[in-house]
Design a protein that fits this description.
The complex is a heterodimer of chains A (160) and B (426). Chain A is of the alpha+beta class and 160 residues long. Chain A is built from seven helices and four strands, in the order H-H-H-H-E-H-H-E-E-E-H. Classes of the chains: A alpha+beta (160), B alpha/beta (426).
C-alpha cells in the first residue's frame, strides 16, 4: 500500500522513540503528528500508524476514538471550538454560539459547504479567567464578545 | 491583607519576556536550588524538607506532597518516574497554564529536584492537548535547559542525569485522574485503573511513579530556597503550607489568577479584594468554590477561610482552587444541566453507575427545564446521584454527583418552580 505519511512524520517519530520505554507510548504523539499532516485521521492513516507501532489498526482507532481532539472525520480549514462550560457560560458563551451559528449559517457540529469553517462546542479549555474563550485551530481566542468573534471570523474569511 | 501578602508566582506572570532562562537566572535565583540539591543533599533530605513544608497537592485531592514521594520504594530495581500532571481540566481551573506560560523554568527546576528525590531519570509532563502553545513554550524552555547543562547527562557538574519529555493529551477530562493519565501516557485510552496497586508501586510502564500537579512541583524550588519550615509558615492555617494560586472566574468584576498565603483569606475577601466584587453591582447568589465538581455554596456561606479543611467542614472542597462566582440572575437549574452535561460527556464509560447515571441526570434535568418532568423527578435526580457517588473506580462519579446533590439541596425552590410551571425554558 502506498505510504500516507511523509518522511517528516517518520523523522519526528524516530526522534521520540528513545524518549519512551516502549513503542506503544508513541500512539498519541503519532496521532497528533499525523493529524498535523492530514487535518484529520482517515482509516488508511490509522492503519499506517498501526503498522509503524506494531499493533492492529483497530487498536489505534480504539485509542483515537477516546479523545475529542482526534478528528475521525474531515473538518473545515478553520475549526472554531467555542467553550460553553460553566465559566464561559456565565460570561455569555451560549449567545456566542448562537451568533456563530447564524453568522456561519451552520449548526454546531457542522462544516460550511466551502470547507472553510467547522463549528464545535468545547468543554472547559482552561481559560476560565479570560472567559468566554474559543479555540481556533491551535490558538486560543479569549475575552470574546460578539464583536470580537465577528471580527475574528471576518479576518479569517479575508485571508483566504 | 492581600497587599501585605507574600507571593511566589504572580509577580512573574503576564510578561512574555519573563519566560526566558535569562530572566529566571536573574530574578528567580534560577537553578540554584537544583545545584545545591544535586551537590549537597541526599534524596531523603529533600523529601524531609518537602514534608516539613506541609505542602498539599495543588491538583485537587490536597494530598501531602512529601508523603506521596516517600511512598516510592527506595530499593526497587525498576526505573522510577516522576510525572507532572499538567492536564488542568477541572472546569474553572487555569492556574497551571500561567506557570507554564510565564515561569516554565521554575517547573523544570522543580522536576529536577523532585526526580532526584525519588530516584527518577526520566520525567514526563502530561499536558492537556488543547494547550498547544503552552506545550511549545514548555518545550522551548526544556531545550534551553538542555543547551545550558540543566538537563541531560551530569547536570551542573553532578553525576545525576535527567531527561524531561512533554507528552500531549488529546482532549479528555478523565486524563487529569492520575491513573487515567498514566494509561494515556502509555498510549492507551485514558481509563482509570483499579487501585491498588497505587502508582507509587506500579504506575507509568508498571514502574514506581509519583504524579504531581504543575503548581505542586513548581513550589519545590521555593521550598528548598526558603527551607521547609519557613515555607510552611507562609500558610496561615495548620497542615497547609505555602501560597495558593486561585483561578477566580464567573461574575466578578476582575476575574484572574491570584495568589494568597494559604488560609489567609475568606472566600468573601477573595471575591471582594481580588475579584473587585460582583460584576455590574449585581447581588451574589452562589459560589462554586473548588472547580465544577465541588458542592455549591450559597451567598451566606462564604465567610469561610479558603483552605482545604475549613471548606471540608462546611461540606464542600477546595479542589484545584478554582472559584466560580454566580450572580442573582443565574438560573441554577440550567447551570446544573450544563455541569451534568459535562460529566456525561466526560465519563469514560468503564463503570456502569457513572456511564449510565450521568446521562440519566442530564436527561432528567433536561426534562425538568422543558416542562416534561413529573413531580417525583427531583427526588429521582437526587436518588440517581446517590447511586453514583462512591460506587465507581475513580472520583469522576463523585464529581458528577456532588453538584447535583448540592444544587438541589440549596436551590430546591428553583427546581420546583419549573415543575409548577412557574418557570419555562425559553
Amino acid at each position: 500500500m502506498e505510504k500516507q505519511l511523509s518522511n517528516k512524520f517518520y523523522e519526528a517519530m524516530k526522534k521520540l522513540e528513545p524518549r519512551y520505554p516502549n513503542k506503544k507510548a508513541l500512539i498519541l504523539p503519532a496521532l497528533h503528528e499525523a493529524q498535523k499532516e492530514w487535518g484529520w485521521l482517515p482509516k488508511e492513516v490509522l492503519a499506517e500508524i498501526g503498522e509503524y507501532i506494531g499493533v492492529h489498526a483497530a487498536q489505534i482507532r480504539e485509542v483515537a476514538s477516546f479523545y475529542t481532539m482526534y478528528n475521525l472525520n474531515p473538518v473545515g480549514k478553520n475549526h472554531l471550538r467555542i467553550c460553553t462550560n460553566v465559566a464561559c457560560c456565565l460570561r455569555g458563551a451560549d449567545d456566542l454560539m448562537s451568533y456563530a451559528e447564524r453568522k456561519l449559517g451552520i449548526k454546531c457540529g457542522e462544516t460550511t459547504s466551502d470547507g472553510m469553517f467547522t463549528l464545535s462546542e468545547e468543554e472547559c479549555l482552561g481559560a476560565c479567567t479570560t472567559a468566554p474563550a474559543m479555540m481556533a485551530n491551535d490558538d486560543y481566542v479569549e475575552n470574546l464578545d460578539i464583536n470580537s468573534l465577528n471580527a475574528y471570523i471576518e479576518k479569517v474569511k479575508n485571508e483566504r | 491583607m492581600s497587599a501585605n501578602s507574600q507571593t511566589l508566582f504572580v509577580q512573574h506572570f503576564g510578561k512574555d519576556s519573563n519566560r526566558t532562562l535569562d530572566y529566571f537566572l536573574k530574578n528567580m535565583n534560577g537553578y540554584e536550588q537544583a545545584k545545591k540539591t544535586l551537590t549537597n543533599l541526599t534524596p531523603d533530605q529533600v523529601i524531609e524538607e518537602v514534608k516539613k513544608a506541609n505542602i498539599r497537592g495543588r491538583g485537587g485531592a490536597g494530598f501531602p506532597m512529601g508523603m506521596k514521594w516517600s511512598f516510592i520504594p527506595k530499593n526497587s530495581e525498576k526505573p522510577k518516574y516522576l510525572v507532572c500532571n499538567a492536564d488542568e481540566s477541572e472546569p474553572g481551573t487555569c492556574k497551571d497554564r500561567q506557570i507554564m506560560r510565564y515561569t516554565p523554568h521554575v517547573l523544570i527546576e522543580g522536576l529536577i529536584i523532585g526526580s532526584y528525590a525519588i530516584g527518577c531519570h526520566h520525567a514526563y509532563v502530561y499536558i492537556r492537548g488543547e494547550y498547544v502553545r503552552e506545550a511549545e513554550l514548555l518545550n522551548a524552555a526544556i531545550d534551553e535547559a538542555y543547551a545550558n547543562g540543566y538537563l541531560g547527562k551530569n547536570i551542573m557538574g553532578s553525576t545525576y542525569t535527567l531527561d524531561i519529555t512533554v507528552h500531549r493529551g488529546a482532549g479528555a477530562y478523565i486524563c487529569g485522574e492520575e491513573t487515567g493519565l498514566l494509561n494515556s501516557l502509555e498510549g492507551k485510552r485514558g481509563e482509570p485503573r483499579v487501585k491498588p496497586p497505587f502508582p507509587a508501586i506500579s504506575g507509568a510502564f508498571a514502574c514506581p511513579t509519583a504524579v504531581n500537579n504543575v503548581e505542586s512541583i513548581a513550589n519545590v524550588p521555593h521550598i528548598m530556597r526558603m527551607g521547609g519550615e519557613e515555607f510552611a509558615k507562609l500558610g496561615k492555617i495548620d497542615k497547609s503550607g505555602g501560597t495558593r494560586l486561585i483561578s477566580l472566574s464567573g461574575h466578578v468584576s476582575t476575574p484572574g489568577v491570584y495568589e494568597m498565603q494559604a488560609g489567609s483569606m475568606t472566600l468573601r475577601q477573595i471575591i471582594d479584594e481580588f475579584g473587585g466584587g460582583i460584576l455590574n453591582g449585581k447581588k451574589l447568589k452562589a459560589v462554586i468554590p473548588g472547580g465544577s465538581s465541588s458542592p455549591v455554596l450559597t451567598a451566606d456561606e462564604i465567610d469561610v477561610v479558603y483552605d482545604v479543611e475549613p471548606l471540608m467542614k462546611i461540606g464542600t472542597m477546595m479542589g484545584s482552587a478554582a472559584i466560580m462566582v454566580i450572580n442573582e440572575d443565574t438560573d441554577m437549574v440550567k447551570l446544573l444541566l450544563r455541569i451534568s452535561k459535562f460529566y456525561a460527556h466526560e465519563s469514560c464509560g468503564q463503570c456502569t453507575p457513572c456511564r449510565e447515571g450521568c446521562h440519566w441526570m442530564e436527561s432528567i434535568l433536561h426534562k425538568i427545564i422543558h416542562g416534561e418532568a413529573k413531580s417525583t423527578d427531583i427526588d429521582l435526580l437526587v436518588d440517581v446521584a446517590g447511586n453514583i457517588g462512591g460506587k465507581t473506580l475513580c472520583a469522576l462519579g463523585d464529581a458528577a454527583a456532588m453538584p447535583v446533590q448540592s444544587f438541589v439541596k440549596k436551590f430546591r425552590p428553583e427546581f420546583e418552580a419549573y415543575l409548577k410551571g412557574q418557570k419555562r425554558h425559553g
